[in-house]
Design brief:
single chain; about 210 residues; mainly alpha; Colicin uptake protein TolQ; transmembrane; membrane
Length: about 210
Amino acid sequence: MKFELLFKIVEYITFIGLGGIAIWGVFNLILVWRRVAMVRFRDEEELDAFIEAIDEPVTAKRYDDAIALCGEDRRAMPQLALYAIMNREQGAERVERQLAERFQLDVMSDIDYRLSWVATVIKSAPMIGLLGTVVGMMGAFSNLSSGTKVDTGQMAEDIMFALITTACGLSIAVPLLLAREGINVQIRKMEDLVTAGVSQILEVLRLR
């Protein structure tokens, strides 16, 4: 009876653990998706339109107008352009280095932090499912070794629990893995556009 009670407790803990990490993984994935959507340009056309918009006031040395234009847009590229315009006297090499640092600190650090939690959930979910599998099989073998008449119903429940936890762990990990890879594609596109945008901004400011 003591072993049966222990197995039941572990079963409940396993399901609670699977549910908890699934919620945490989806929560962090949603935050990353929203963050990327908020800070990136969707394509090169949007980037080119932004560069054209600030090119005219910067060329005319109406820096206040360019600053106001960048300040109204909270996406990563306009904010980097704002910083470059305000620090244009520091030289191309220093400004470019500072822009890379600001992009990493202001944008990528939070994204990387959240994605690390998603990766942890992807790795942990199958392991918790495997723990449930082991516990379920232990319960089944405990029933066989009891020395009394085997309770086939209980044995079937233990085996079913073992299979369900394995399936749950994989059902959590696989969709999160696919979604994370989809977000990584968007992140790489964003980084490419930012790199191209920084070069164009430095050219507009005549720092190159």
